[in-house]
Amino acid sequence: DKHLLGTKGLSAGELESILDRARYWEQHPVKKTNQLQGKFVANMFFENSTRTRFSFEVAEKRLGAEVLNFAAAVSSVQKGESIYDTVRTLESMGIDAGVIRLKPNGLLAELASKIKVPLINAGDGNNEHPTQALLDLYTIREQFGEFRGLHVAIVGDVQHSRVARSNLWALKTLGARVSFCAPPGMQAPELAEHAPYVTIDEALTADVVMMLRVQLERHEGTLLSSAAEYRASYGMTVERAGMLKPHAIIMHPAPVNRGVEIDDELVESPKSKIFRQMSNGVPIRMAIIERALS
Ligand code: CP
């Protein structure tokens, strides 16, 4: 299956081969190859993005592909055209692969069953965000060398997080221990059988502390009484960062609400890998585009 819909179901070997190929691209920092010359890749974003959309575009251009950028806001979606008809339209024009981000849950799998060209999930509701998890895995492996024996604590808005889910499936496959830490209104009870919910103090004992963005746009305004209260109870404050293990790292998929889930001065501190994660997004997405088109 050339679609990449999620990390759930990918084997350790498949995950590692993507990480290894990304490492190859990192070690061969050519600005551009002609490897995918003549191939057309459409980036179809039905929900906003900065990192995922542009790092896919950089990756595609570095591989020499022709890039089509589709933005729902300036398309016939505004006239009521469906997601399926939009993707079929681009497929009928001869694209070789599609990168797609969708807001509604569950639509991507159905779409992939009807579309012949490989589709790459660039964010699927709160279900999965596999390319983010892969760049996170890459960042963790770069730091620690392996996954077995590592404790990764994922802290924050787990309920709405496709990043948490994709990381959970992949990290467990690779042998890491995963725990969640979330306020009661931001937990995903169905995930509790896969990873325990722990206190913030316990989360701070992890090797990797992955902070999640509080998805203000997905809450109705009732769950989050105040940003200051959230920071005090669950934020990575300077004080909490001082309690981390010497070798521990802080991650965050970004965009970051500075001063809410993580203090401003920690974002670019030595323990933070946040901008390193973004850099790693390019070689990871090169490996993923290659895999889809090979
Ligand atoms: N981390 C991430 O997916 O960021 P964007 O929403 O900006 O793509």
From TrEMBL:
Keywords: Pyrimidine biosynthesis, Transferase. Residues 2-142 form the Aspartate/ornithine carbamoyltransferase carbamoyl-P binding domain. Residues 149-289 form the Aspartate/ornithine carbamoyltransferase Asp/Orn-binding domain. The keyword Transferase applies. Pfam families: OTCace, OTCace_N. It comes from the Bacteria. It catalyses: carbamoyl phosphate + L-aspartate = N-carbamoyl-L-aspartate + phosphate + H(+). PROSITE patterns: CARBAMOYLTRANSFERASE. Its EC number is 2.1.3.2. Carbamoyl phosphate binds at R51, T52, R101, H129, Q132, A254, P255. Pathway: Pyrimidine metabolism; UMP biosynthesis via de novo pathway; (S)-dihydroorotate from bicarbonate: step 2/3. It is an enzyme of class 2 (transferase). One of its GO terms (molecular function) is aspartate carbamoyltransferase activity. L-aspartate binds at K79, R162, R213. InterPro entries: Asp/Orn_carbamoyltranf_P-bd (IPR006132), Asp/Orn_carbamoylTrfase (IPR006130), Asp/Orn_carbamoylTrfase_sf (IPR036901), Asp_carbamoyltransf (IPR002082), Asp_carbamoyltransf_Asp/Orn-bd (IPR006131). Belongs to the aspartate/ornithine carbamoyltransferase superfamily. ATCase family. Catalyzes the condensation of carbamoyl phosphate and aspartate to form carbamoyl aspartate and inorganic phosphate, the committed step in the de novo pyrimidine nucleotide biosynthesis pathway. Heterododecamer (2C3:3R2) of six catalytic PyrB chains organized as two trimers (C3), and six regulatory PyrI chains organized as three dimers (R2). HAMAP family: Asp_carb_tr. This is Aspartate carbamoyltransferase. It comes from Paenibacillus gyeongsangnamensis.
